[in-house]
Design a protein that fits this description.
single chain; alpha/beta; four-stranded parallel beta sheet; 16 helices; globular
Length: 356
Amino acid sequence: MSDIGAESLSRFDAIIDVRSPSEFATDRLPGAINLPVLDDAERAEVGTVYKQESRFKARRIGAAYVARNVARHLETALDDRPSGFHPLIYCWRGGMRSNAMATIFSQVGWRCGVLEGGYKTWRRAVTAALRNSEDPLPVVLLDGQTGVAKSDILRAAEKEGVQILDLEALARHRGSVFGGYDNDPQPEQKYFETLIFDRLRQLDLTKPILVEAESNRIGRCEVPQRLWNAMQTAPRMTIEAPLARRADYLLSAYPDITGDKAAALAAVDRLRPFHSKETIAEWSALAENAQWRALAADLMRAHYDPAYERSRQRGRCGAPLAAFSLDALDAPAFTGVAKKIASALLSAQLQGKRTP
């Protein structure tokens, strides 16, 4: 089986990645479960024996591990699967590991698919689409300064029928030094690209895709080149709101930070290369005394708003499609502006304006 199209993959009852846990953590097909036939230590041992002793001995040791591991999966993760179970199995190159599991499954009576070329087939498709392709993407940016609730507005726009690509959700990061989630780490770069690729192939690329304006890095995840090229010149929808409203919004948007003084102090400390010792000390004192609203307002005034303006001046900004000014940053306001965004995008399409 070589077709990795979404429709083709959906025909299988499960997608089983038989690679080691560390390989799986780096990247995998969307929705795959990890049932390794060799764990990391076993794989390293077999590889060492192969290089230093003999191919035969390595195969014998590997076969014993594979048999035990597949047996354990049959007795645990797969013990409730029916006779008509139809999985897709893949390893690194579609070779020994995936075929070993498929052979055992066929003896059980399960009809298996094995991905030709393994994970590397998937990775080549992702790289071709996101790094090598120069085809334009129909991106429209949702722009605005820190605290104007772009992420909430983006999700509200999706409810109004707008196609969105939520990069912060895929990157598990809110795009600032305060943006990470301690209990939900960011994906590895390759898996971040997999998530983008999988999302894009669910969308209609003849219609606009609303994307929040970001830098080319979201935490430690890098926006792949094809998407970044599109974002740099994309037309924009701009959101504006008063500083006081934005400060209030940030308090509700970052409860994990305001509820964790140590995390807030660590985030402030990461701004040390950009500001004087005196300024960092002032911000640290605000965090230490839980003066969160004052801290949020001053961070925006002295750090994020100037950084935003510098970024816009350096960037290749696309044409403005619309600008919306909000007096409130709450659910009714998000729904209202989302409806206006949907209408503006439809109008731009009908008039043939550039929404690439």
